Amino acid sequence: MALTLASCGRIGDLVPPEGASLPPAPYGASEPPDAARLLRSEPTAVPERSVELRRESEEREDDPFDLPPEG
Question: Rounded to two decimals, what is the model's pTM?
Answer without folding.
Answer: 0.36
